[in-house]
Design brief:
alpha/beta; Serine Threonine Protein Phosphatase 5, Tetratricopeptide repeat; four-stranded antiparallel β-sheet
Length: 669
């Protein structure tokens, strides 16, 4: 059995659903010709981690408890496709393309191989945003597949294209110059083609159950939303879903609305496995095998992401053509006559409105009674404000409707992207515009603090982050960023206290241990720093930055062999990361291997030409090698570039002394 999930894939950007896109998806269209194609498949949530938890368990987010990206892990008491198939003797493997699906979030259970080796580019943004190209994922999946010939296997392959930012590789960037999103769809399709071709080459194409699903869609500007997660319109809920299996009618197209929670029980049946899942979703296989439309059921969707901003949660229910969205300003649409969701029919006496609203009440009841992960305080408050949970205190004033805050959300996304691109000044301008409309928004304030840090003003960021924590004391990200800002502001002891408090709340978060290690290292407490960096490496083994930091403290402790191993590990994870090349060069100088050191320093300078520490180390290496002319030139270059940088005042003084020793008339001094 092969399950392919494509992140952020709209149904209407696949040729099998919209002939205008056949040039982008020839391989998906080829699969569609031998599959049952579901024309109205719904995601239960427009967020990656919760949607995949639903795909693998057959449960709604309300029941499995994973409601947001990066916030909860799937409880280990909940069966998944992988746990049940593995217990029945199947070989299981998964290859995922984004850190948001790393094993940290509970989806690895049952997979004998769970390849989440997603490097963290050393100069990237947050860990949660790390990804790897579809080509790398498929390379590893094919390697695994080749080793399973003749065995029953369940292989899950996750591709992150076409998730934003849209940066399609060649040749798709030039093939779709006006739509980079479509270019990324085409890039994902090409890799799906490689997988399908490998199955055919192995003679397994006709005997393998194959399912392809989008986890959610992408708004692309519809209803004002650029990406996904904020609203519950069809642009982000309707996804492609196709299933090919022995006994199914090739090329059939079903119009009955179905949900991604139906995937797991259906695949279990088609694979001939015992139906041991505790799924809420429907087993569609009996109807597919008889070439019949499955019966209509009520489908549910939610997004709690707006609650992060202090806005209302959204819930949606659909049956047949009717769709109801519970919000401060509720919505009702007839999707058969109004697929663009332009005519809100709430309050016009449509019987479906009351029925769907009552169904949503039952949906929320499953969350409060059936989920092993409790709602956080803010999410619970927002659901109370919609009338779905009896409040434990007087009902709070209704929160803002997310559709009335789309412009603010768009400005936030723009500011965030600008900051990550290194344009803190423009990010600040855009963010000020958003804050003018929503000045007490905790997410906007948190982003403002990050912009201030990026602009070199951590002291100001500290004040903003304290305000964020006043508004939302449960904000773990703000606590982490506060500790970073305190450290950057030179308030090391406060930073240490903040980090230790944060670790008590979230001991499994690697970034906290890395940050605490940096605090200890700055104080010269290298044994404690080593412990923290080692823990960070255990929790996040594919992050080159933490391996480099571990190498630095091991070098300070005189554990040079272990330091070299750490540096080389960092380089293997990200060969374009200059810092471990510098660390490796320092070790080589200490070992008297000056030629090797010069090679390492040269590599670091190729990657970061103005890396001042490397310029100084290179001069020392040439000096140690007896190459006085090259050493003098290197000292001179370093002095010119570093003489106005107060952080390098001692190195500049040393360079001048060393230069005077080997050159009676120093240049550039």
């Amino acid at each position: 059995m092969l399950l392919i999930t494509v992140d952020t894939l709209r149904a209407d950007h696949v040729g099998a659903y919209n002939p205008a896109f056949t040039s982008a998806t020839p391989n998906l269209d080829r699969l569609a010709q031998k599959s049952v194609v579901f024309l109205q498949a719904w995601s239960p949530v427009p967020l990656t981690t919760p949607a995949h938890a639903s795909i693998l368990t057959g449960l709604t987010p309300a029941r499995h408890g994973v409601r947001l990206n990066g916030a909860q892990a799937l409880p280990d008491t909940i069966p998944t496709l992988a746990t049940e198939l593995q217990s029945q003797g199947w070989e299981t493997g998964a290859f995922v393309a984004a850190y948001v699906l790393s094993r940290r979030f509970g989806l690895a259970r049952g997979f004998a191989t769970y390849d989440d080796q997603i490097p963290m580019p050393a100069y990237a943004g947050t860990r949660l945003e790390a990804e790897r190209p579809a080509s790398q994922v498929v390379d590893k999946a094919i390697e695994w597949l080749k080793a399973r010939s003749g065995k029953r296997f369940f292989l899950w392959v996750h591709l992150y294209e076409p998730h934003a930012p849209y940066q399609p590789p060649a040749p798709f960037a030039t093939q779709f110059p006006d739509s980079p999103y479509t270019g990324e769809v085409a890039a994902a399709d090409a890799q799906i083609g490689r997988l399908l071709d490998e199955l055919e080459r192995m003679g397994l194409g006709e005997q393998t159950v194959i399912a392809v699903a989008g986890d959610h869609g992408e708004a692309l500007g519809e209803h004002g939303e650029s990406t996904h997660g904020l609203l519950l319109y069809e642009a982000t809920l309707r996804v492609p879903l196709m299933v090919a299996a022995p006994g199914l009618a090739a090329g059939s197209r079903l119009s009955t609305p179905v949900s991604l929670v139906d995937v797991a029980p259906t695949l279990m049946h088609l694979a001939g496995a015992q139906p041991t899942l505790q799924a809420q979703g429907s087993d569609l296989a009996p109807f597919l095998l008889r070439q019949k439309e499955p019966p209509e059921t009520t489908l549910f969707a939610e997004t709690l992401y707006p609650t992060s901003f202090g806005w209302a949660a959204l819930l949606a229910a659909r049956k047949q053509q009717w769709k109801y969205v519970a919000a401060p300003k509720p919505e009702l649409y007839n999707l058969a006559t109004d697929p663009a969701e332009a005519a809100n029919l709430v309050g016009q006496g449509v019987p479906a409105e009351k029925a769907l609203r009552e169904a949503l009440g039952k949906y929320v009841a499953t969350a409060t009674s059936g989920s092993s992960v409790e709602l956080d305080t803010e999410a619970r408050r927002q659901l109370e404000s919609l009338g779905y949970i009896a409040p434990s205190s007087p009902t709070p004033q209704t929160a803002a409707d997310p559709k009335d805050r789309v412009r603010v959300f768009t400005l936030f996304e723009q500011a965030h992207a600008l900051r990550l691109a290194g344009d803190a000044a423009q990010a600040r301008t855009v963010l000020q515009e958003a804050l003018a409309e929503d000045p007490q928004n905790p997410v906007l304030l948190a982003e403002q603090a990050e912009v201030l840090r990026a602009a070199g003003d951590p002291a100001a960021a500290v004040g903003v982050l304290r305000r964020v924590l006043e508004l939302n004391p449960a904000d773990r990200e703000a606590r982490y960023n506060l500790a970073l800002a305190l450290r950057e502001a030179g308030r090391e002891e406060e930073a240490r206290q903040a980090l230790e408090a944060a670790i008590r709340l979230d001991p499994g978060r690697p970034e906290l241990h890395e940050a605490l290690g940096l605090v200890y290292a700055a104080r010269g407490a290298f044994p404690q720093a080593k412990d923290e960096f080692s823990r960070a490496c255990q929790l996040d083994p594919h992050n080159p930055r933490v391996w480099n930091n571990l190498g630095n403290v091991l070098r300070e402790l005189g554990e040079l062999a272990a330091a070299e191993e750490a540096y080389r590990h960092a380089i293997a994870l990200d060969p374009a990361f200059a810092e471990p090349w510098n660390g490796l060069g320092v070790l080589q100088v200490l070992a008297g291997k000056t030629e090797e050191a010069i090679t390492s320093f040269n590599r670091a300078l190729e990657l970061a030409p103005n890396y001042l520490e490397v310029l100084f180390n290179m001069a020392i290496a040439w000096d140690e090698a007896g190459q006085r002319e090259k050493a003098a030139q290197a000292y001179t270059t370093f002095i010119k570039k570093a003489q106005n940088n107060p952080q390098f005042s001692s190195q500049v003084s040393a360079a001048r002394r060393l230069l005077a020793r080997i050159s009676p008339t120093p240049k550039g001094g």
